[in-house]
Design brief:
By secondary structure, the chain is an alpha+beta fold. The protein folds into 2 domains: 98 residues, Rossmann fold (3-Layer(aba) Sandwich); 91 residues, 2-Layer Sandwich (D-amino Acid Aminotransferase, Chain A, domain 1). Strand 11 and strand 12 form a beta hairpin. The chain is elongated. It starts with a helix and ends in a 5-residue tail after the last strand.
């Protein structure tokens, strides 16, 4: 038995670790969800390197760590062109595609989910970021519902900016339930929304309007 343990011990020690890089801004790379993901990777198989803001923003890609696998996430400050240059230079195995800008636009995410047969809430897009589309996009607000381009969405409803990096998300309530709205925010401990009821009309900027999921 001791001989077997010795053999397996040597074999385990001889395994070459996979060099895994996390190329994302520190806010994402060191976030609780990312730490949870990385904690599940066996240390005997993975050598994890977090690139860090200083490397990503201030150093040329030739000086970035050389890795075999890469996890990367888009964010507002992330230099995506620089990141793509690194991928072209080192050609790591990509856990997720850096050039999928689709993830930065909630409309494109919904469209991809629908295209692949994945269920999504009933929704409608209000597209005001394109001057041509803006004239064709019509929205009307009533006490119990809104109508966007002829599609009625009953309140309560959720208003989400099309920009995935914009977390100004609101729930609007019907007048029969008191009206007003609440702003959601990223979970802080056990809280996900501001309990204060706000009273102002819909913004009608480019948004996605699905019903809330409680």
């Amino acid at each position: 038995m001791d001989t077997l343990r010795s053999v397996f011990g040597r074999r385990r020690r001889s395994i070459k670790k996979i060099k895994l890089g996390v190329c994302a801004m520190d806010k994402k790379a060191t976030s609780k969800p990312m730490r949870a993901i990385l904690s599940r990777l066996p240390e005997e198989y993975f050598d994890v390197t977090i690139f860090g803001d200083d490397t990503i923003l201030n150093k040329p890609v030739e000086e970035w760590p050389v890795v075999e696998c890469l996890i990367t996430f888009f964010s507002g400050q992330f230099p995506i062109t620089k990141g793509l240059s690194y991928v072209e230079l080192r050609k790591p195995f990509m856990i997720n595609e850096l050039d999928m800008n689709i993830l930065s636009d909630r409309r494109r995410v919904y469209e991809m989910l629908v295209k692949n047969g994945i269920a999504v809430p009933r929704h409608v897009f209000l597209e005001r970021d394109d001057p041509v589309k803006a004239e064709a996009n019509v929205v009307e607000e009533f006490d119990e519902y809104i109508v966007v381009n002829g599609v009625q969405i009953n309140k309560p409803l959720v208003e989400k900016p099309v920009d995935a990096e914009d977390h100004a998300i609101y729930i609007y309530y019907p007048m029969s339930a008191g009206g007003g709205s609440k702003r959601l925010f990223r979970k802080v401990k056990d809280r996900r929304w501001d309990p204060t009821i706000l009273s102002f009309p819909l913004t009608f900027n480019p948004h996605v309007y699905p019903p809330p999921q409680f």
